[in-house]
């Protein structure tokens, strides 16, 4: 780092994003098979775009909205939280944000003081690690139990708690593992949090993408957790709206104004046009969500079938949710995942994400996204078979 550059310690502690680095390198390769983005390939459904267009035409989007989000949108969110998450909410407990990412950043900023420890069941979404660092907090990685589908290690979490621990931050369904934490595990996690007066910040971005009879459970639905949970959600994955940048959080009416103090300097408000699109998403037919889920189930099954044919190279846990999976690399070459993924990109023309991007417990793995077409998966795996087997 150039010493003349006046960069804060907190930003210097953040490493370059391996995900963005792989994207950059992938652009240099012609006709790459691309499995490294957690971004739906489908476009936003037409009725949602129409909602935004109508709002533009009616002159509704040129100004800021209320900083906490449009009242009409928050009212619809309250209904959704009751219907799908079993969370009893009031509009005063909702904050509309610039995606789930800004919701989590604002929540972490509101809760974490410099030096506070945040427990991250790991491997975990790389951005969560950065969100803790940027608040000058300390990420504490507690490995999940890989051979039980990357389930929560509750004893490990209890052991990791110190007087400096302030919060637990997790995503379920999980990025990068595809794990869906079970209601029983989350009820025990709630007990641990309450016993130690910890905040639990959730990232429920993939709440609608669960398979094989698994159920998404929101820890914020446990009445005793009301004061200790900040639950973060988004429209971006559910409705293929990543570029619109709109999400929201639920917390108590005492906490929301505090989180708002962090939200305003970062965003003022979520984009007004996107809030109208989100309103159309909630009010319209939910058939598109079913269709996305059915597509991801097909692509997950295809990816698992193709991985079975490479079982001397990779061992995997079948993902129960999200559209991501996290195979372990069995060959000695794969123990340094960053070098392995770059080599796969250059030599097999397949773009994946190195496991190390998801914390130290992610090493010797790679992340594969199945939010792509079946053709893309077949193209990638034809190349991997050719590269490893023939
Ligand atoms: C676990 C998780 N949370 C949040 C996000 C981003 O959500 P948003 O677009 O709502 O900010 C992602 C995107 O990859 C993700 O994987």
TrEMBL record:
GO terms for biological process: amino acid metabolic process. Signal peptide: none annotated. InterPro entries: Aminotransferase_I/II_large, AspAT/PAT-like, PyrdxlP-dep_Trfase, PyrdxlP-dep_Trfase_major, PyrdxlP-dep_Trfase_small. Residues 41-384 form the Aminotransferase class I/classII large domain. Keywords: Aminotransferase, Pyridoxal phosphate, Transferase. The keyword Transferase applies. Its cofactor is pyridoxal 5'-phosphate. One of its GO terms (molecular function) is pyridoxal phosphate binding. CDD domains: AAT_like. Belongs to the class-I pyridoxal-phosphate-dependent aminotransferase family. PANTHER family: ASPARTATE AMINOTRANSFERASE. This is Aminotransferase class I/classII large domain-containing protein.
